[in-house]
Amino acid sequence: MIVEIVRTPDLLKALSGSTLKGDCDPLLDKFSEADKKKLNHLNKFELKGFEVTKLKDELIRKYEKGV
After folding, report:
1. Is residue 44, in this structure, part of any structural domain at all?
2. Integer angstrom CA distances of residue 11 from 5, 6, 64
3. DSSP labels for 29-56?
4. Is residue 42, in this structure, part of any structural domain at all?
5. pTM of this prediction exceeds 0.85
6. 65 is in which domain, residue-wise?
7. Could you report the per-residue pLDDT of 4-47, keeping only the tens digit for each?
């Protein structure tokens, strides 16, 4: 089983998921340019201490389900 995982790294990624976050997150590949800007803006507000988790989750959930 380990040999199969070593031979097919995509299988390992499919089993374990992605650990990439931020600008490298594969989920961002599906985002429109406007939504990428919106998410970036929300991240800046979050760094300043504003509570924007609900807004970010709604935006991300929109793309997890499919646009």
Report:
1. yes
2. 6, 9, 20
3. GGS-HHHHHHHHHHHHHHHTT---HHHH
4. yes
5. no
6. 20-67
7. 777 887 777 777 665 656 666 667 788 888 998 998 999 899 99
